[in-house]
Write a structure and sequence with these properties.
Elements lengths: L3 E4 L3 H9 L7 E5 L3 H11 L3 E3 L10 E4 L6 H11 L6 E4 L15 E7 L14 E6 L1 H12 L4 E4 L5 H28 L4 H21 L18 H4 L3 H20 L2
Helix pairs in contact: 5-6
């Protein structure tokens, strides 16, 4: 049994805490920027106890540090000044953090980089990929902990966090923009917005399957045919939408050529 202390219970931290099997990883102290938000997180997770100071996490075996991006280093600096970290595992998720735990601290630190976005708290991390980089002992503990959540783990090279974060953000943002464009076109073709979104789901699934079969190569469409952007009169699009489509193809082609 490993007692978990949670510092900065954002959506990712709450999701990890909610997904962990409680019989093996009981959630102990939960520390936030203020006691009210810590208490709110505890109510939402239905586990843990809100605390007021960094020193209150001293009895935790694992310390999960998941505050907003950009303040992880400050949180861990405060943690190491107030808590004896010897033989504790410290897990953090901020891709920009440069953790300065030294051998003298006696702690084992590891970055957990999820290939996933957390728009809300979830207790289901099944098949979510986490990339781990850090101290080998911490990586071993993190691997065991995450597998107990049903997640998949990859031992990654040092400094891989920003790469995983960029892969996650670019996929989310680019896919959302393309879906917005496609749904708009379908609505213009007479489908209600909700049905247009539903209609896109099998298309996205088939495109992903085709991508996997082609090992990253499009097997159909303009890219596979070697075309530049099709003329707008062929597409039947107005000038603005035709320009957006051309930009989508140009961006896709630029990424493809870079990876050749």
């Amino acid at each position: 049994m490993k007692r978990i202390g949670l510092i900065g219970p954002g959506r990712l931290g709450r999701s990890l805490a909610a997904a962990l099997p409680q019989e093996r990883y009981p959630i102990g102290p939960v520390l936030s920027s203020n006691f009210v938000s810590a208490r709110r997180a505890v109510r939402e997770m239905r586990r843990g106890s809100p605390v007021k100071t960094m020193a209150d996490v001293k009895d935790s075996d694992y310390i999960l540090v998941t505050p907003p991006a950009g303040v992880t280093d400050l949180a861990i600096d405060q943690l190491r000044s107030e808590v004896d970290l010897r033989r504790k595992a410290v897990f953090y998720c901020d891709p920009t953090a440069d953790i300065a735990l030294q051998p003298a601290d006696g702690a084992f630190a590891c970055r957990l980089s999820p290939l996933h976005t957390f728009a809300h708290t979830t207790d289901d991390l099944t098949d979510v990929y986490f990339f781990l980089d850090g101290h080998p002992t911490a990586v071993r503990h993190a691997r065991s902990m995450l597998r107990d959540c049903g997640a998949r783990v990859v031992a990654a090279p040092a400094g891989s966090g920003p790469h995983v974060a960029a892969a996650t953000a670019s996929t989310r943002d680019a896919l959302t923009a393309v879906l917005d464009f496609a749904v708009e076109l379908l609505v213009g073709s007479g489908l209600p917005h909700k049905r247009a979104m539903e209609a896109m789901q099998p298309l996205v699934a088939s495109a992903l399957s085709e991508y996997a079969r082609g090992r990253g190569r499009s097997r159909s469409g303009a890219l596979a045919d070697g075309l530049t952007a099709p003329p707008s009169d062929l597409l039947g699009l107005d000038a603005d939408r035709a320009e957006i489509y051309q930009r989508i193809l140009a961006l896709t082609r630029a990424v493809r050529e870079r990876n050749c």
